[in-house]
Design goal:
This is Transglutaminase. Pfam families: Transglut_core (PF01841). The protein has 197 residues and is α+β, with helices and mostly antiparallel strands. It has one domain: C8orf32 fold. It has seven helices and six strands. The protein has a four-stranded antiparallel sheet with strand order 4-3-2-5. It has a two-stranded parallel sheet with strand order 1-6. A hairpin with a 2-residue loop joins β3 and β4.
Amino acid sequence: MELIQETPDLSAYLVADEVIDHHHPRVRQTAARLAETVADSYGYAQAAFEYVRDAIPHSQDAGDPRVTWRASDVLDLRTGICHAKAHALAALLRAEDIPTALCYQRLTHDDGDGHAVHGLVAVRFNGAWHRQDPRGNKPGVDARFSLAGERLAWVPDPALDEVDYPTLYAAPHPAVLGALRAAQDRPHLWRTLPVAL
């Protein structure tokens, strides 16, 4: 699949905003700590990915009812669904000047009843975008950081009306962000997440 930048301006994928708040002290501290352990930007990107994937539990997997959406809150409260974790990873990567986009899939719910939009990121290395899924591994899910072929949590099945959306967004999609911000708790969010973009 060819990934398509929402905007041709690469600097848009480095911007800090209310959601991807990489100017926040919590994000800066976490980025600095991760940067101390690696030799280059590739090593940093992998370390940031593994930190968000492994050290911040997916709230559904952990049974945590809290809803986070701002990157600094995800890092501070150490919880979030896929979208929140993607925001946190985007902030950590942009904090170290690595262009990072938000991207999405339409997937079937685990129980097979309906669909939901799933969030992930794409990083820019060596003149190309590479999608990464920091949602967190569990039985049946083994996402890995890779620039040599995707190692995502899921591969959409067109027979189930699942979709890989090719657009690379500089900011969270408004439908996703609106659902996150309006949710009283995770069960409420599960009922209101968009089913398509």
